[in-house]
Amino acid sequence: MLYRLVITESQRQDNKIILHPDQEHYLRRVVRLNDGQFFIAINGRGNGWQVKLTPIGGEITNDIVENKELPMEVSLMVSLPKGSGFDDIVRCTTELGVSRLYPIMADRTLLKPKENKLVRWRKIAQEASEQCERLIVPYIAPPLPFLEAIQQMEDDSSRFIAVARNTDKHLFNCLNPLDLPSQITIATGCEGGWTTNEIQSAIAHNFQPITLGKRILRAVTAPIAIMALIASLAEK
Amino acid sequence: MLYRLVITESQRQDNKIILHPDQEHYLRRVVRLNDGQFFIAINGRGNGWQVKLTPIGGEITNDIVENKELPMEVSLMVSLPKGSGFDDIVRCTTELGVSRLYPIMADRTLLKPKENKLVRWRKIAQEASEQCERLIVPYIAPPLPFLEAIQQMEDDSSRFIAVARNTDKHLFNCLNPLDLPSQITIATGCEGGWTTNEIQSAIAHNFQPITLGKRILRAVTAPIAIMALIASLAEK
């Protein structure tokens, strides 16, 4: 398999790729490519190219036309879990095809994310996209309080909020495999769960409460389980 | 919610629970229970009791009758990923209802697990069962080479092997939601993938090759995605 590398649009000029020194170092010293050998450059927005390494950078030899994206856009509003749990969520849900991740500071969120976290999460999403062979890198929004995040929503996506210990319908039963929505937004809670106010506000913004099964899933597991289910329904 | 604690059968005598000193310390100092307050004791095999803390241990006040188990037995044969990835697999798949985990040393497995790993994994499974409110703690087998593990299988479970970059059927299409198997076994590969010999041997032992979608899932993500799909099909 060819090594994959995310580049910015400014690094591509006609059929040439201008490599940053650290990228060139990585390709030659770690991946151990020599001049004339190939790698794949992706712009993270759906385009990819097979590139030949040359003494002055890279030369595009052909476009990559594969499509490994889900047929719909999935946005996850994820209440930030404790510790580094969101790192795992970014990694796993990127592999499972998520489009956008909204890190949420819910009423009961304990973590106050540091400024540099967003940079780190975006780097993880980029690496996960390279590894799982997507051409698109999921967008990761700056952390927002839940009520602000839902007030800012402008799309007309099908919206769900996962609530623990409820008797609502399972997410599976809210999605018709023969007629899946083109945009889905799903919100998941943190360790302490949603407050009543958050659930009521979500319902007022057209979120439908759903369950994910009988057992109590941790804040890290719930978004991964959701993406696994949606990807299965979309790609079966 | 009441705090949950796994006990061994020998700790239960009629309607009394004999607490180990570290359990008593935890209940009183960390969970901050006082005499007369309640917790839940589970034996990890499907039984649970509501217990009142007393000066001499615990007193069973009633049985827990809830059933949060999947309606089938799911065994996962998981090729050990790098680093501590199997810890995450134990935690997440326990929450999603797995019955048995078989850590596999595949031909391309890099990790040679240390002796004390099995003790650690079983402790994680126990804690995850407490947390997600199961009464059963999944069994975790000692690590085995893949070929040995499949030769030792004696059940007549429906068997699948997840293979990356193939054109086989999606796992979803191999499971009829209206007639799910009572026993399912699924094998997942490590970072380097299965060898041809491993896939051929699995097929000879009635494993059906399946895909998990278009993107390449890491060794950590694949078993979690599988359990999320099976739990959704079983509990929808």
What's the total helix number of chain A?
7
- H/E element order of chain A: EEEHEEEEHEHEEHEHEHEH
| Structural class by secondary-structure content of chain A | alpha/beta
Largest interface: A-B, 36 and 36 residues
Largest sheet of chain A: 7 strands, parallel
CATH architecture of the largest domain in chain A: 3-Layer(aba) Sandwich
CATH top level of the largest domain in chain A is Alpha Beta
Give me the Rg of chain A, rounded.
20 Å
The mean pLDDT of chain A is 94
Low-confidence stretches of chain A: none
Q: Quote the beta fraction of chain A.
A: 25-35%
The fold-level CATH name of the largest domain in chain A is Alpha/beta knot
Termini separation of chain A comes to 25 Å
Domain module count of chain A: 2
What is the name of the CATH superfamily of the largest domain in chain A?
Answer: SPOUT methyltransferase, trefoil knot domain
Q: Work out the number of β strands of chain A.
A: 13
General form of chain A: elongated
Helix content of chain A: 25-40%
How would you describe the oligomerization state of the chains in this entry?
homodimer
Keywords (chains A, B): Cytoplasm, Methyltransferase, rRNA processing, S-adenosyl-L-methionine, Transferase
Pfam families (chains A, B): Methyltrans_RNA, PUA_4
Main location (chains A, B): cytoplasm
Function (chains A, B): Specifically methylates the N3 position of the uracil ring of uridine 1498 (m3U1498) in 16S rRNA. Acts on the fully assembled 30S ribosomal subunit.
